[in-house]
Structure formats: C-alpha cells, structure tokens
Amino acid sequence: QVKLVESGGGSVQAGGSLRLSCEVSGDTLCMRDMSWYRQTAGLQEREFVSGIDVVHGTRYRDSVKGRFSISKDNAKNTVSLQMNSLKPEDTALYFCEIEMYTHSANSMCHGGEYWGHGTQVTVSS
To answer: How far apart are CA 35 and CA 2, in angstroms?
Structure first.
C-alpha cells in the first residue's frame, strides 16, 4: 500500500508563489512516476500539471512552463511543486499522483497508481 499526503496549498494574490509537497509512505521502492494534477471547481476531469520520472525527466503542461518547477527528494520520498508567478487560472485543487512499476518491469512490484486527497490553491487577481 502507498499513502500520499499533500501540503502547501493556500491563498495568494496573482504573481505570488506557493510550494506544494507530497509525502509518500509505504511501498516507495516501486514508485516509477510522480506527478501533479489539478481539478478546477465545476469540472470533473483532472488535468496534468507536471511530472517527473527517471526515463523522461521533468514534464510540464504548456501553461505552467517557466513558472512551475517539480522536484523530488528520494531520501524523504517527497515530490514538490514550486509554483511562481501564479495566475488566477491556476486556482484549483491540486493532487499528487504516483505510478508504480508493473510486475513485468520489476518482479517486486505490482503496478497501479495512487492519489492523494488534494490541496487547494486559490489565486486572487
């Protein structure tokens, strides 16, 4: 089992910064990809914001490139998202997501994905 706990959300004015963190506990040796998604109020779908993995490195959606930066601390099993120059359109509930290695990729692992409960980011104009 894997547990994800997000922190760092809050309310800021446009142009401000926030740093989100996601602490992962449990079967951390099987983590393959760590990502952040967000969900805007009134919409059902979550949109990809940023991700990090060994093969592809870091990835960002176009609208946050140059403003957001993802990083991970393997020793602490955390993934962080530094968000600068925030805009009102960044307002959303932000979720941490972990994808695990499949059994075929690593015989010690069993695949699957896990989500945190989300942390709210509100940016006012």
So the answer is: 15
The terminus-to-terminus CA distance of the chain in angstroms comes to 40
| Residue 87 confidence (pLDDT) | 98
Closest residue by Cα to residue 89 from 61, 117, 58, 116: 61
Backbone φ and ψ of 29, nearest 5°: -70, -20
Cα–Cα distance for residue pair 92/75, rounded to 1 Å? 29
Condensed to tens digits (0 to 9), the pLDDT of residues 71-81 reads 999 899 999 99
- Count the neighbouring beta carbons within 10 Å of the beta carbon of residue 58: 13
Contact 98, 111 (CB under 8 A): no
Place of tokens 């870091």: 58
